[in-house]
Amino acid sequence: MSKWIFLALVVLALWYGYRWYERTKRIRAEERGRVRAGAAPASRTSEDMRQCPACGVYIAADAAPCARPDCPQRARRA
Ligand SMILES: [Zn+2]
User: Fold this and answer.
1) How far apart are the CA of 76 and the centre of ligand 1, in A?
2) CA-based angle 67:68:70, to the nearest 5?
3) Where in the chain are the domains?
């Protein structure tokens, strides 16, 4: 009979261990996501965005030029 009590305790320990593992994994993932969400806008603003005078579209400084032949981005690249 004590064998079954021992088995029940082992199952309980495994169950609680599994739940604890899942919870810490979830909390760690949430913390990683929070750090990523805080870092994303900073990296986005550090990107040098400028408005193209020819087409009026905001593009990154190292972006490809638009289809217009007078696009300054084209001259910058040439
Ligand atoms: Zn352009």
Assistant:
1) 11
2) 140
3) 1-46, 48-78
